[in-house]
Backbone:
């Protein structure tokens, strides 16, 4: 196996991650701006819709960015928590991050992107990931909880493409949650994205937030496995990309707990959006102090040694530790084996 194949899907190198872990620092930080959202996605981890009481001020958001930069962060992922483009100071936040010399990744539902917004994002070198769960209007609208969402996303996509996305220096991706309603069409959605230079981020749903009210969205592990294997086959045969089909992300791997954390719109610090364990609040402690003193963070920074159950003995432990968010939401234990993983103890069910 080549080095490239061995470390497929890694955002940072193993040496960078090891140094970050040793120093108690950060390589990236996920930042919520507000829970305000114009959609009501049925799978939303945050049950977003209206702002929470006492959300962070612009000054407090800037302080978080300052502290993340001091800890070595190279990237700030702007989640919004809801829809970040509803936040009135979103471009001030983007400018502040960029002024620190950090990369800005924006996760957006794209429904509010017009030509001017797209051109501003392009000019500021923002990497954009837009939420897209289906190329079928009825399915997309159903999962988004709002009629007309598909048409609005299409307008946003067209504006981004007219502005220049994607190109060599401006990444455009689509974030897709695997649901029963869209599972069968995802191979075609994958081809659609790849053929346009758009990065597909296809991931397993975390059973939290609004998803707990919509159990009809759940997909059984065997079906997810078949989907991942089909996507891997498509990538290898049609696009020259080799990767192992392992949860929770297709063609990628989650290692965020070794170098990242999430700050919510009210200042709580969580290991990630899925592992929603408050380990402190930036209004009361410095981010460095919170990370240094948290046993949960220490557990997860050394997840490959601390993980439990079948994940602890899995031969893919160096590449995969499942979805910590799903494990936590289902079992209450952030170190538990991932219940959604299709791998069992029988050789015929071991990923090739």
Residues:
């Amino acid at each position: 196996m080549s080095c490239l194949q061995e470390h497929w899907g890694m955002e940072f190198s193993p040496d960078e991650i090891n140094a970050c872990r040793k120093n108690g620092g950060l390589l990236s930080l996920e930042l919520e701006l507000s829970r305000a959202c114009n959609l009501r996605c049925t799978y939303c981890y945050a049950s977003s819709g209206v702002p929470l009481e006492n959300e962070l001020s612009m000054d407090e958001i800037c302080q978080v960015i300052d502290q993340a930069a001091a800890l070595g962060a190279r990237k700030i992922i702007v989640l919004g928590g809801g829809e970040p483009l509803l936040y009135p100071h979103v471009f001030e936040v983007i400018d502040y991050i960029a002024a620190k010399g950090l990369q800005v990744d924006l996760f957006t539902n794209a429904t509010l992107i017009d030509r001017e917004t797209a051109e501003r994002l392009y000019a500021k070198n923002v990497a954009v990931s837009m939420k897209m769960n289906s190329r079928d209007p009825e399915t997309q609208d159903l999962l988004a909880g709002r009629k007309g969402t598909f048409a609005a996303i299409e307008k946003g996509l067209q504006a981004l493409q007219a502005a220049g996305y994607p190109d060599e220096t401006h990444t455009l991706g689509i974030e897709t949650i695997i649901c029963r309603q869209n599972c069968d069409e995802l191979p075609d959605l994958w081809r659609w994205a790849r053929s346009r230079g758009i990065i597909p981020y296809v991931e397993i749903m975390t059973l939290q937030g609004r998803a707990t009210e919509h159990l009809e969205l759940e997909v059984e592990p065997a079906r997810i496995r078949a989907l991942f294997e089909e996507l891997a086959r498509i990538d290898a045969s049609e696009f020259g990309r080799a990767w192992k089909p392992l949860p929770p992300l297709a063609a990628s791997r989650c290692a965020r707990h070794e170098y990242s954390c999430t700050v919510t719109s009210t200042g709580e610090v969580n290991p990630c959006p899925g592992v929603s364990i408050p380990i402190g609040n930036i209004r009361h402690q410095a981010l460095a102090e919170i990370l240094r003193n948290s046993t949960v963070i220490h557990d997860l920074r050394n997840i490959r040694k601390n993980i439990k159950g079948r994940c602890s003995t899995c031969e893919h432990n160096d590449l995969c530790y499942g979805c910590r968010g799903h494990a936590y939401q289902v079992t209450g234990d952030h170190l538990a084996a991932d219940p959604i993983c299709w791998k069992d103890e029988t050789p015929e069910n071991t990923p090739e």
Remarks:
- The radius of gyration is 19 Å.
- Confidence is low (pLDDT under 50) at residues 1-8, 345-352.
- The beta strands are 28-31, 75-78, 103-108, 127-131, 172-178, 199-204, 262-263, 269-270.
- The first helix runs from residue 3 to 6.
